[in-house]
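Review form for a predicted model. The reviewer records the input and the model, then writes brief findings.
Reviewer: anonymous (R2)
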Amino acid sequence: MKTMVELSHAFLQEAMHKQAIVLDGTYGNGSDTRFFLDQPVKKIYAFEIQPELKPKTIPSSLVWILDSHAHLDRYIKEPLDAAIFNFGYCPGLDPSITTQASSSIEAIQKTIQRLKPKGRLSLVLYAHENSPLEQQEIERFLKTLDPRQYGIQKITNYLKKDSPYLFLIEKRKSAKKS
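Model under review:
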């Protein structure tokens, strides 16, 4: 079976093209950014709050930002084709430095507002010390989205407690009138 990140990448890949603008909202060890670098995209925004994670070399298509993803509206002005967030902590670093419910919700809201029609967003949620509240708040927010405007799927590993789970979100072309 594929991991949640592999499923995310497969979902996001369909939104990739030569002019695509994409977002890695939680850079961490850079695996999602590397995925985007391997795709035909124009620009990649990557957010991280831990300066020691800054890549040694930064390709011209990458805009690496040392700031909270909650502030993405300060840096991203153009519409997004695809975005990914891995909520939790960076493996191999201090597990007490985690994503937080309030900034995660703010980042998701701002990302959704910037998604183009047919734009895709992937949210991978990992267990960590703040995850029960963060996961509850993210799910509460997603339930407020208009199902005529957004398609959302939740994927879980049914047999493993505390395993990561995934939301795949696609912005519809336009909201259907009722």
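Findings: The mean pLDDT is 94.
Further findings: The domain at 4-171 is CATH 3.40.50.150 (Rossmann fold).
Recommendation: see findings above.
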